[in-house]
């Protein structure tokens, strides 16, 4: 089976299939949304299945020419749905505007990354076929043998007013704290998480969501402390904890308990990118689709 993956490397390198660097049957394309020359490379590769990250970026006339089974994986947040109403923020309004460009009819299978947003997705009217967490390269993101961790507390994410306010207490904390705003992905990011006792998840705008960093960190054996999520985590439930209070005292107990937690191998395997692609391609063989698989 020949696999192509389309998506900006800086954002999706963590979600490229295991072994993509050396496997001649896997092609990963780092795209530029201002230039579509990558189309010829994918087309000439003649993939059996192509996974499109950020599918809303690509015009229909280009996507439809890619041969094989085409999967759209939507990874941008949508508003929460509380009390029968959509709770919008500036972040989610921008994402909905970008989603309006998506060429739905060009894809055989459409996946949304956050299973907790089913009500919102149905309310908006997105024709989603499946809800599934972003798969990750488990060959890179996995625990290391026990040993002294370099960082007590780590956060990876851009600076926002909400995050600055939430994390301000760490300025005077006794913890070895690392904050990376941007520019780290792939093996380098996996190394950071493997060397962290606790990884924090702070929402950009304070609204509950299921950010990919949660599972990336948990897959590396870190404890994840997060603000309220849009729903309880489906995977790594014994390693991901919601906090209501953010202080040195509230974080300290989780550092002491880190080495005693069991690592969930089943959750880890279920996040494999190759496993995700292969299983959906097999399913396509029996799927009734209005699109022709070229």
Automatic annotation (TrEMBL):
Lineage: superkingdom: Bacteria
Limits of the Spore protein YkvP/CgeB glycosyl transferase-like domain: 182-238
UniProt organism field: Phyllobacterium bourgognense
Classification via Pfam families: Glyco_trans_1_2
InterPro entries: YkvP/CgeB_Glyco_trans-like
UniProt protein name: Spore protein YkvP/CgeB glycosyl transferase-like domain-containing protein
